[in-house]
Amino acid sequence: MMFDRRLVQNFDWGLLLLVFLLGCIGLAILYSAVTAETPLPQKKIFIKQLIWFSAGLAAMVLTFLFNYKKLDRWAQPIYVVCVLLLIGVLFVGKYVGGSRRWLSLGPISIQPSELVKIGIIIMLARYYSKDANTQGFTLRELFKPFILVLIPFALIVKQPDLGTAMLLVLIACSMTMFVKIERRSLVCLVAFCAVSVPMVWFFLKEYQKRRILVFLDPDRDPLGAGYHIIQSKIAIGSGMIAGKGYLKGTQNALSFLPEEHTDFIFSVLAEEWGFIGSGLLILLFLILIFWGLKVAQGCREPFGTILAVGVTAMIFWQVVINIGMTMGLMPVVGVPLPLISYGGSSVITSAICIGLLLNVSMRRFLLN
Amino acid sequence: MTAALEKYLKTADHDWYKQRLLGVMVCALAAFVVLFVRLIYLQVIMGDEYRRLSLNNRIRLQDIEAPRGLIHDRNGDLLVDNRPSFDVSIILKDAAPLDQTIAKLSRHLDMTSEDLFAKIKRTKGVSSYQPIVVKQDIGRDVLAAIEVHRFDLPGVDVNVRLRRHYLNEQSSAHLIGYLSEISSDELKSGKYEERRGGDFIGKFGAEKAFENYLQGKRGGRQVEVNANGQVVRILKTVAATPGQDIYMTIDQALQKKAEALLEGQAGALVAMEPTSGRILALASSPSFDQNIFVNGMSYKQWDALIGNPYRPLENKAIQAEYPPGSTYKIITALAGLQEGIIDADTVFHCPGHYRLGNRVFRCWKRGGHGKVHIIKAIAESCDVFFYQVGRELGVDRLAWYAKAAGLGARTGINLDREAPGLIPTAAWKKQRTGVPWQEGETLSIAIGQGFNLATPLQMAVLTAAVANGGVRYSPQILQNIVTADGQILYSFKPQVVGKLPVSKANLELVRKGLWEVVNGKRGTARQTASLEEIDISGKTGTAQVFSRKGQESMKEEEIEDHLKSHAWFVAYAPSAHPKIAVTVIVEHGAHGSTAAAPVARELIKAYLIDRGPDGLLKAQSADSLSLTQ
């Protein structure tokens, strides 16, 4: 079956349209972020992002062309490659701002920690889809997925990239909660965490404690993270209902919003487009999340369902953490806003996620 | 049967997943509701307030500089402090109308408007809300003028910045070092994470070595400014942590004495406490003014420093490597005694030369020393005696003793750019030049010529070890580190790094010889290094700068200045229970006995005799001069 007409009939045009809309909004804000009110317009960044979007489109198409069920078999090799890339980063990675996250492959550099998120989702979907039952997983059964997550987690913490490591844990936890944890095991787990977290805290060094406290409460660092959050809140709040108008943002000016084209892109949008624009963007993301869950619901076999849930969880957490951070609800971490933030690895990862959703969606009626 | 049924019932089917998904949707919705509520709070409820704050970017950050730690000598005398300087900066966004403001400012600053614009243009890429420094360190008159016309100069700000100030111009410049502006390479290196462009960091000497203690931690404040850029409210403050104060082991008065003694000559002096390794004085001549590195120097000043043939920027005590000359005979003597090649009674005959194959090696004394034993050989620095000892030892055994005495390797003093010196071995030469070792070269080595190289500091450590009975101490310059609130973080502890591998009796023989150098009837430094009040022991050295083959009859006085030999003197005193070990080198000083020995003597005298009743050395003053006479 090289080509099946039902694939075209079942293609999820609605999801594609939604993603296209988000992508366009992203490009529009990015253009504002890199040109408005800055003494040095960085049009190059915009051009680069256009190129990344094209690459992302290709990655997305590649991801939905083959039957996703093959991923069940490819899960282990994919996982191993991801872990090897992470180990590679530790040894030959590029140092940027004190941490090693990038791997240079000729002219482009990639962030393996982004790809590893997808690797983990596929791996867990494979494991959970085999043994899922209505009683939920016991602690013993959860040991293997725990190790599977721990390895990349430790490697990412070592980079160090606390934000991505945390994201990995959140995705894994979401998937695990979805397939259910057996009641007694859950109680044990919660009790264990309640005891061990203060214990770990006790063993941390002073500077590590301080870093975590600042992470949880940016106000403790009024000259760094705390200042960024204040500026971000001013940017968002000053947009009021109607916004200051496209390309008219002022907080955007260099050095007031940090990383305004990556982590704080939402603040730029909120300032220029006001509540109308930013509310709409959040709404679009909510629709995207529900769409992903609908895809999971439509799928009639566990691997596809869990895969779709995992991918949706990843988008969900990034959106909530990123937007929450710019509004001062969340710790300050370098988590990009999917489809909106600048950055090759982020765009490609988001595109692959969408590709996976499209893949599961269009093959929902195919039987093995 | 029931088990199978039970398993079937528990299998997660599509309906079960659907039900789980419903729960997930509820959770997701709840999270988004929180986002919406927060968005409404920020944009609708608090919108007006945030809009006000966003006009002119009202919330800004201001730095609070951390005062850098002060540097004292061992007695607490201040050597380096910080003085306030006033820098004028301008914030472009607040300075409208810019042309008029600049024109007015230029009149106060005595600069043309074009100059000011040029300065501003150079900082391209900086946010227009970031202050740009246009003139540093304005005088108090200018400061007063600007403060008075403040209302007329929107966006112009004067910041107090602490500037490093070296109190004693030219003094201990190499030891203390200097600060200067951080370079872009250093910023990129990742070693200075807390630093920013325009910051000053230690670049040389103790300022660099103890950078981490001295620098402190910058603080800052979040402030709200009005439309003219003036602070209306301080929102949050993070106090700066001041740097820690450093107490050096040097004695400032002794240091100044050392510098005065070397004045007008190129050379170095190291004085150490033999029983601890404390550096008491460390001087390198000529010196330079550290303040010009902080205040910014002209190209002319820089060229003068770099172009000076006497290399003022080099710390000759640790960076310069010289052939040790006859001071090296201490090593040859120790090795010969310990290896049993000679003993106290061994006598060689010195006819004034020594024949090896068809080559003739001369003794410095043409007429010869006649019958020589070890003590006389050291006292009169008989070359022929040491030729024979060296020849029997061989180069590698000699090198082993030299290395055991700390030569040929960095001492590890806490100062930058220390040179390792060089102790040759046969294998080293073969590898380096491809030519096997020649026996004649061993003879040169034995009297400290040839490939041998040592720094004055290495010789000081060796001298101190001979002085204290054979213990090698690590030379240290740091006495105490004290926090701003008076807590002592670090205190000096002597550190033993090795022992001279010789017996007490053999060392005693050499010490006897060194005593004779100064106090014996024919000692090479008997007229130039001896003091009435105390016994000094020492050894002269004359390090040839060029080979005099074929011109051996030439007298030192006839040679051009820059080809004259370097003059060494190593000494310790009082001979019986030494309290100070001194090494002096005078470049092209011709003879150790005449150029270097008096310097060492005067320094020892200053340290051991010219002290006031309080135990402290008297500063360079008229009464201390009268004591000298």
The count of DSSP E runs of length 2 or more, i.e. the number of strands of chain B, is: 23
Using the alpha-carbon principal axes, give the shape of chain B: elongated
The secondary structure category of chain A is: mainly alpha
Distance between the termini of chain A: 12 Å
> Which protein chains are joined by the largest interface, and how many residues does each one contribute?
A-B, 57 and 55 residues
Description of the structure:
The complex is a heterodimer of chains A (368) and B (629). Chain A is mostly helical. Chain A has a domain at 1-65 and 220-368. Helix content of chain A is 70%, strand content 4%. Chain A has helices at residues 5-9, 13-35, 43-65, 70-92, 112-131, 139-158, 162-179, 183-203, 206-216, 225-238, 265-298, 302-326, 344-362; strands at residues 94-96, 99-105, 108-110. The model of chain A has no long low-confidence stretch (mean pLDDT 86). With 629 residues, chain B is an alpha+beta fold. In chain B, 36% of the residues lie in helices and 21% in strands. Chain B folds into two domains: 60-85 and 161-248, Penicillin-binding protein 2a (Domain 2) (Alpha-Beta Complex), CATH 3.90.1310; 252-288 and 314-628, DD-peptidase/beta-lactamase superfamily (Beta-lactamase). Chains A and B meet through helix 10, helix 11 and helix 12 of A and helix 1, helix 2, helix 3, strand 8 and strand 9 of B.
